[in-house]
Structures are given as C-alpha cells and as structure tokens.
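Protein Record: Sequence and Backbone Structure Tokens
======================================================
Scope: a single protein chain, as residues and as a discrete description of its fold.
Tokens: labelled as protein backbone structure tokens, with as many entries as the chain has residues.
Position: the record begins directly beneath this header, with no further notes in between.
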Amino acid sequence: MGGASCPALAAAVSNAGGLGMIAASWTEGDDLRSLVRETKEMTSAPFGLNLVLEWDQRERLGVLLEEGARVVSYFWSALEPGSPYVEEAHQAGALVMLTVGSAEEARRAVDAGVDVVVAQGLDAGGHVWGGVGTMSLIPAVVDAVAPAPVIAAGGIGDGRGLAAGLALGAQAAWMGTAFVVADESRSHPAYKDMVTRASEVDAVWSEGVFNDEWPQAPVRTLDNSTLRAWRAAGSPPPGERPGEGDVIATMPGGDPIPRYSVSNPTEEMTGEFEAMALYAGQSAALVRRRRPAAEIVEELLAQAAATIGRLPAT
C-alpha cells in the first residue's frame, strides 16, 4: 500500500483481530524507529513491517529489529539459504514472510528458512511480482510447500474472497485495496473516492508507466488520463512518454511529483491526483465505501464465516 500505510491503520487492523502491516522500505532513521514505536503505543497486538528488496535493506532491517519488530515481510526478491534477511530476523526472534509469484519461488523460499509464504496473484493492486492469477496460484503454492503456512493475496476484497483463499488451502488472506479507503489510511480522500467508484475492469496492469523511481516493475492501478495518453501514443518506453517531466503534484515541502512517479496520492499532497499512480487491485469493485478499519475487518470475518457456513458439508 506504500504511502497509504501508517501506524494508525496498522494498529487499527491489529486491534480488530487482523495483522496490520506498515511499508518501511523508504523511511529513514528516526522516522523508521517512530513507525514501530508509534504503532506499539496504539496496539499490544502483533503487527508487521514490509521491506522491498529491490534495494539493500540491511540497515533498515537492523533498525526495525532493534525496535522490537517481530513480523518482517519481504517483497520483490528471491531469498537463498543463509540469507542475512532471514538469519538476522530469526536471531532477533522475528517471523519472516516473503511474497512469491510461483510454486517454484515458494519452494525456494521455504528452503531459505522463510516462515510464511505470501502467494500474490496477478489480480493484485500495486506492484505485481508474478504473472499467475490468484485462483490458480494459491493451490499450486499450497501443494508445493505444505505444511508451511500460505497467505493468499491478490484481488481479495471481501469475506467471500477470504473464504475462497481458505478453501484453496491458504491459512489467511492479505488485502490492500480494501484498506486503502479506511478512515485511518493516509490515502488522499480523492484517491479513496476514486477507488470506491471503480469497477473490476478499471484496475489495469501496466509496465513502463508509473516506474520513474522503480524501473521495470509492473503495477496495477486504476485507469486514468496518464495511462490513456500513454496508450494513445503507442505505449512508448521511458524517455518518450507523453507529458514526461510534467509536475502533477507536490509534497508539503514543495518537492515535485512528476507524472510517471511511483507516488500514490496521500493526504498531505496537493495536485492533479487523478493522473497519479492510483494503486488498486481487481477487487476494487468490491470496495464501495469509506469507513474505519475495524469495521472493515469485522465485516470481512462475518462475511467469510457466513460464506463458509453456506457451503455444503463434505
């Protein structure tokens, strides 16, 4: 969820019985320590922090572990046996999670000592690691790594999706789009409203668009004017895209956000939000209103229980 995540959202999810997660990949120094400390002040329940391994994250990992992080999630890399990302986390008593996009990656992750495998299907919003749809990926990963626990991710937006993930053999479901619109999320209100109005076909996969700071990383975002102009121009590569270099938004301190930035609209920004990276999965059609995170969790659990209860006994 990138900039949408924050201590308040993670704590609210954890307090409601889920596992709140916080993006920590781009946070520095004392601000990184504050992420953990602030969250601890708001919840005594477990929560996790995510690091993208496209870049060296050893220093950040050290800070998180020093501050008592006990659930660490990794993304955008395979992990090999002896990886310091696994060994250092385990030495500190932390649980290690890794997002994968195939059964083979899942097997390698477990061989490397990963405790929990997150199987992310192509339906997912934001940065998409693999190329297999969620319904096909989850059982393949479950079969590949049993009895290691698996979390189903990608296009899951309500309790029916949670029930489906459990039916496919996963032990839990990971959801992002459903919580982008939570009251506690740092997403800009305009972004939240665009998600609640979106349909499943509005969340489109693209490569070479919103990637200025993270090249060669495909994403799923809501279709918008930037994407339409890019497609109309023949989907040109970076350096030839229409409007490249345009400043479409600014941070509070005045730092510019160019048209093809990975930045998603957060509450402190100003600018042309519709043209920015509007991360959302194909589950956007299931997200119809803004509300507190606890209410979202409660409804997810109730709907999942009701769905499972309607299934015929076997």
Observations:
- The chain has two domains: 2-182+287-309, 189-285.
- Residues 189-285 form one domain.
- The mean pLDDT is 97.
- The two ends are 38 Å apart (CA to CA).
